[in-house]
Design brief:
By secondary structure, the protein is of the alpha/beta class. It folds into two domains: 7-250 and 458-477, Aldehyde Dehydrogenase, Chain A, domain 1 (3-Layer(aba) Sandwich), CATH 3.40.605; 254-438, Aldehyde Dehydrogenase, Chain A, domain 2, CATH 3.40.309.10. 38% of the residues lie in helices and 20% in strands. The protein has 15 helices and 21 strands. The chain is globular and about 80 Å long. The protein starts with 6 loop residues before the first strand and ends in a 15-residue tail after the last strand. 51% of the residues are buried.
Length: 496
Amino acid sequence: MPDPFRNFVDGSWLDTASGATFEKPNPARTQDLIGHFPESGQEDIDAAVTAARKALPAWSDTPAPQRGEILRRIGDLLTERKQELAFEETREMGKPFAETCGDVQEAIDTAYYAASETRRLFGRTVPSELPDKFNMSIRRPVGAVGIITAWNFPIAVPTWKIFPALACGNTIVFKPSEDAPHSGMLLTRLFADAGVPAGVFNLVQGGAVSGAALVKHPGIDAVSFTGSNDAGSNIGEVCGRLNKRLSLEMGGKNAQIVMSDADLDLALEGVLWGAFGTTGQRCTATSRLILHEAIHDVLVERLIEQVQKLVLGYGNDEGVNVGPLINEKALEKVTRYVEIGRTEGATLRIGGRRATQGALGDGFFFEPTLFTGVTPQMRIAREEIFGPVLSVLRATSYEEAVRMANATRYGLSSSIYTRDVRLAYRAMKDIEAGITYINGPTIGAEAHMPFGGVKQTGNGHRDGGWEVFDFYTETKTVYVDYSGRLQKAQMDNVAS
């Protein structure tokens, strides 16, 4: 078995040139050290990019359905190893085992979807304006692609990007988050075991320095990034200067609206899952709950009652609903935002503290937290907290609720609960977000649908679904003139 704590370059498991490493602990049990992982430097990035570029011609010339067969085999291996992957993912990043099983299942779905799409990489044929001439477009791979992903979906999100990129004939250099290096390694092992040719898929571990070296490397033709707005903005500056294709998926401040006619039982289930699933550490998490004034008080009281029943703990233990925050820095950030909410005048109804009782004291646990009396101007209503903190706002009408939902620089996901079909269809148009759920929470993406946001959530591209294949391909226009003579296009096409 290959050493699990190395990079994977050109088909081999390698140490870094410098020998530098970093530690990764279990965030629920910090005394459980998962391992020391490579801290890649420029020389390691150079080697991985060189391997990807060397493998590109043969991989791009491989018939697309054959590339799809390899993706299908990866899907089969993901299915076989689902339980193992989910257990290790929970140990590494903290969310409960049932959630990490869902994470792996999403990767399985994406593998089979991308495999099938290798038979559907359509171009177009269109009439020529001249006789005896044939016009068409075909798709060609972009080249060597740098993939940089966050830690909170360490199997699903990388595969959203990697599988379509490989299906289109690109080669990959993958840098997972330093908070999820083990999941990245386990995913890489699947690629090796499925028979991905050497150099087509390469893994480099490390933090921000490694990522920056990958982004600016002249051998990388495109970059796909999921992570924070600050990091994404920096990547955008570099890629803009170097004229590299770039896909950014960044933050969210997602709102769930509940109207007076809504099914309150359904809305309650939705907000509990949306706000506190993954400990609120999702870009699509429900961080704002906008309640019509007619049902505000009753739903808040019911929500507090249900929040009190949530069980915190290590996600691989039975009965756990909420895991830890990812690290000490995240814990400090959430703690700081709770104090900001208090200072701004919001009412803390439940939670608001680090959870330290019993075994929780050895992890980065934070109590599920609820603020009421929040206004759109408050920072806790505008800024991404990325933790189990829910801000409740009161609206007097549909129009006011939508204005509140849109009062943020982000525009990823959104939700409205109503039985009024007119309001539901208005919300699809009125809410400024890349995703809108009707009578569902703000979380729950499906592998065959586009995923991404508007405003400062992203730069217009989408992961998932059919649109992601556009990002990973270039359109090539082809003209075939079989007239046997020179035809000068518009010069020969002017009616006499």
